[in-house]
């Protein structure tokens, strides 16, 4: 326990500048916001722990941005627009002020990039590794959240971006694979939330690929009550990325989407500069994922933090 | 890393039964809720870490209830009505299923008692101690959140319940003081969120006493731009509770409130069966807390988790 004055000063110095309208300068017991009129709220929470979800010596600004982006990716999957977030930060007592300064600078950078602000939170000590938790708020027009359960036989399966780069990036960040220009490590540190692409009426279902493509498409199948096939030859990946990582690597944070065939052109327009690639289709049948042109990774693929 | 299937099964078994409307059975990327029409949202987040905020061998159901109640106490201070919460749980990989069962049972019990439901969250592994984070949502009529900044010279200072019992309870739970019937340990494990007492128009300002009375009344003074005096002889405490704990013990989770003199009878009515006690008053002057009838604890009192 340090003097409380120290904790308050740290909040004032590093977190108050991030506070948005309604956060009451982080000086009250809670934030008070008027929800956007005529909208539904979309809410998600993710935790990240040093040594599990990021490397203990990862730069704090990148850790902060990854935490925010993983949550933004959940909003992207639901077709929601970001509003704000609450954050709890548990750190060892010896954590230097510079760590907080860098962490807050990362948040500030991505708050500006993605249009949201800090609403509240808590900082505490821990005898263990840095443990972070972020709850994100977004909004969507009533009934227009995109769910996992809307995929229908005949829908095409699309993904944004390229697969397997987060997982290869983790290996690169650990020094296990060559990454001369740091591209893959960067992909691991800074996922790109694909906001604005999955839209109600354009895609039938969506989720963000965080556990691995095959497993996550399996989630779409189970929620929607249909089957999917993935064509290994169609998977968007760089030559350096092994097929197994594209299929089952975690930390992609790309979107997998069920798209009615008539909406393909509109999807491309919605995606703008972001690549979207057809990698398979949904069909009638019990929930299952079939892989064409390659063997499924052992255990069906997928990756979990627990 | 265990098989992802294990994590999903655990969520289905223990957390899905807690999920409220809008949580989408915890099967989607995020929750979707319609905010209560014509209300403002009140949002707070708190983290709790084993060995810092609770004892590593505390029963998991009590830990869960304390986590929920500390956040409910923040809503009580703002005069908000609970809506729901999101929760992240980071636990060692060896954590048995029975831990989750007990933890969820505690949540279920207090969800029913306080009228709110789980909206979403995350479970992860950690190489460190159990780390929990909870974000709570409540609502309030527009403009009717009670703030820390509304205290005015002439207001009386009231507290709910009795002070110092949480701090003495921590010592009892550690076996450092006698507690034959477990009353004090219970007070440490299960704070009572004082919902419905601080109301707009009835109290000018409020907060929940979590860092220690003197320090927290100091927060009211700073936010409101006035001074307060506390009469040590008036502090509601059991004979077993040392004055120093009533002044500076943490973990009270009682409310400190600024109350215009004309509202005292109405406050008593709003409090119902909960005791409310006048312990001092606010007066004009630079923000400071004066203690009458006793010396301030060294450092001005107060207690922090960091």
What does this structure look like?
The structure is a homodimer of 306-residue chains. Chain A is α+β, with helices and mostly antiparallel strands. Helices cover 30% and strands 25% of the residues of chain A. Chain A folds into 2 domains: 4-140, PurM-like, N-terminal domain (60s Ribosomal Protein L30, Chain: A, 2-Layer Sandwich), CATH 3.30.1330; 148-298, PurM-like C-terminal domain (Phosphoribosyl-aminoimidazole Synthetase, Chain A, domain 2, Alpha-Beta Complex), CATH 3.90.650. Chain A has helices at residues 4-15, 60-78, 97-114, 165-173, 183-189, 213-224, 243-248, 264-271, and strands spanning 31-33, 40-49, 81-91, 117-125, 131-140, 156-160, 205-209, 227-231, 254-259, 276-283, 289-292. In chain A, helix 2 (60-78) packs parallel to helix 3 and helix 4 packs across helix 5 (183-189). Chains A and B meet through helix 1, strand 1, strand 2, helix 2 and strand 3 of A and helix 1, strand 1, strand 2, helix 2 and strand 3 of B. Strand 1 of chain A pairs antiparallel with strand 2 (40-49) of chain B, so a sheet runs across the interface.
What tags apply to this protein structure?
homodimer; alpha+beta; six-stranded mixed β-sheet; 60s Ribosomal Protein L30, Chain: A; four-stranded mixed β-sheet; 306 residues; Phosphoribosyl-aminoimidazole Synthetase, Chain A, domain 2
Give the gist of this structure.
The structure is a homodimer of 306-residue chains. The first copy, chain A, is α+β, with helices and mostly antiparallel strands and 306 residues long. Chain A has helices at residues 4-15, 60-78, 97-114, 165-173, 183-189, 213-224, 243-248, 264-271; strands at 31-33, 40-49, 81-91, 117-125, 131-140, 156-160, 205-209, 227-231, 254-259, 276-283, 289-292.
